[in-house]
Amino acid sequence: MVSEDVRFKDIRRVGRDWVIKGEVRSRTRPGTWHSVEVRIRRLRSGEIAIIGRCDCEAFVKGHMVCWHILHMTNVFIRNRRKLISGFRVSVN
User: Are 8 and 18 a contacting pair, CB within 8 Å?
Assistant: First the structure.
């Protein structure tokens, strides 16, 4: 387990993008997990673009990038090699 706050359900490579699906624990409501999907794209300029969606109130009602999207992205980036081997995803 790489994080107690994140449950990864699917990790796959689509072209130059990583598509990650899973759940992230709510920080404000004990026992609640939010469904999160993130697409990470490394641009040719070296920058990274993050596109995501979450079912939390901040994202759905407030139209804001939420902590859940950022947290899942950070956990994936920090533990990419370990997660990829666990999900049997080929690395380009």
Answer: no
Rounded to whole angstroms, the Cα distance separating 18 from 11 reads 7
pTM across the whole model: 0.86
Work out whether the CA dihedral 28, 33, 39, 41 comes out positive or negative: positive
* Domain coordinates in residue numbering, the chain: 6-87
Architecture per CATH, 6-87: Roll (3.10)
- Alpha-carbon distance 65 to 62, whole Å? 9
Contact 54, 66 (CB under 8 A): yes
pLDDT in tens, 30-39: 999 999 999 9
* Alpha helix ranges (H) inside the chain: 57-60, 67-78, 80-87
Give the distance between the most distant pair of CA atoms in the chain.
41
